[in-house]
Model the fold of this input.
Amino acid sequence: MKNETYIGIGLGNLIAAILSWSVNQSVLLGLVHALLGWFYVIYWIIYYKLII
Done:
């Protein structure tokens, strides 16, 4: 299960960075979008762990 999670998160960050590059042609914005994906994962873990 852990391996699939890491692959999914990595793939999501990769897709965010590629789509950002194709729209904006900016490496910096690609990195920002990839990092925002991690912030969402952290938010989801905190929010749903506190509720459950």
Observations:
- The chain has a mean pLDDT of 77.
- The first helix runs from residue 2 to 24.
